[in-house]
Amino acid sequence: MSGRYPDNKRDNVRVLTVIGNRPQFIKAAAVSGPLRDVADEVLVHTGQHYDDALSKIFFDELGLPRPEHRLELGGGSNTSQTSRMLAALEPLLAREQPAMVLVYGDTNSTLAGALAAAQARIPVAHVEAGMRSYDRTMPEELNRVLTDHTSDLLLCSSEAPAEILRGERVMGEVEVVGDVMVDVAQLLGPRAAARTEVLERYGVASGEYVIATAHRAGNVDDPARLERLAALFEAVPYPVVLPLHPRTGARLEAAGLRGRVENGRVVLAPPLGYLDFTALLHHARAVLTDSGGVQKEAYLAGVPCVTMRPVTEWVETVEAGWNVLVDLDAGAAIAALERTPPAERPALYGDGRAGERVVAAIARRMGA
Ligand code: UDP
Questions:
Q1: How far apart (Å, rounded) are the C-alpha atoms in residues 187 and 77?
Q2: 33: helix, coil or strand?
Q3: Which of 7, 194, 295, 356 is 20 to 30 Å apart from 184, CA to CA?
Q4: Contact 251/229 with Cβ under 8 angstroms?
Q5: Looking at ligand 1, which atom is closest to the CA of residue 216?
Q6: 3-state secondary structure of 152
Q7: How far is the CA of 293 from the centre of ligand 1 (A)?
Q8: Consecutive sets of 10 residues in the chain, 368 residues long: mean pLDDT of each?
Q9: Residue numbers annotated as active site
Q10: What's this model's pTM, rounded to 2 decimal places?
Q11: With contact defined as beta carbons under 8 Å apart, do 29 and 4 qualify?
Q12: SS3 readout for 170-214
């Protein structure tokens, strides 16, 4: 991220990092730099996100090193994708012989990396461990729970997930390191906020529009819920900028609903790079999202968040009064968008040095 990635030194201990989708590129950007100071990192991109707008731009903008291995395993159902990843990772781990495997978050790439490593008896470190929505219909929830119970080093964003893991009696060592997305937000937030030309591009004025994202399977794969999502966007009484995730775009097209969403007030954009998205986030009057990471980034930027899910794993943002869960209830969403945020905004997710703590924990564990 800082543009200082020392060459891997082949005599160092080897850590194999498995990443595959947009939020994982952002999280890894906080860790790869300090990790490469103490270890030989082998970066594996599973190809879960293969679209340039969801992948390449993040490597360019955040200075993430080029992956040593690209598996190109996107597409298919969750089960098929995870099983193809497992099949590809087994021989790769046998060849690379890492001392540890590092995974992030809650995707199929996370679970496949953790399980393939555990089967090969390679210790696993999980960043963003212990997050729970307790909604087992979410593919991400299954990935989180299974990854945590397979991991040796469980690195948590805050005290709440650490408590959850202790309650679940996980086998691995639990440590609170802070949130790695805070590191990236602190480093790049001010630079991003200065990019006001992106507001002009989408015809919106600072403080007067809503920035939105929507892509959760639970909201876009079920036709009835997709229709409610479209109706919610139709009802929002403010200008909205909605960078459209390819999955959502495809579902809206197939259902003939794209026209209902793209009305005079809602401007559709392609998926944006981190800097453009963060610029739009910083200048928005509110955020409307079903993303995990965006709920947290809204809090960090001091922008009220309205979350189109019935539950969240980022409970602290709700308890602090900055985030309201509305599921797909348009009336509740409009009421929540009109709320005034609280005066207080305590630091919930660390001090922007989580990446260093992740690396220190890994180094300690490996005796490096
Ligand atoms: N993001 C981005 N461009 C966009 C929308 C989101 O760079 O058009 C970033 C956002 O800042 C956050 C991350 O993508 O860091 C969130 O990813 P996503 O919503 O895909 O995943 P989730 O957090 O829900 O797993």
A1: 36
A2: helix
A3: 7
A4: no
A5: 24
A6: coil
A7: 6
A8: 50 92 97 96 94 90 95 95 98 98 98 98 98 95 98 97 98 98 96 96 98 97 97 96 97 96 93 97 98 97 98 96 98 97 95 97 89
A9: 215
A10: 0.95
A11: no
A12: CCCEEEECCCHHHHHHHHHHHHHHCCCHHHHHCCCCCCCCEEEEC
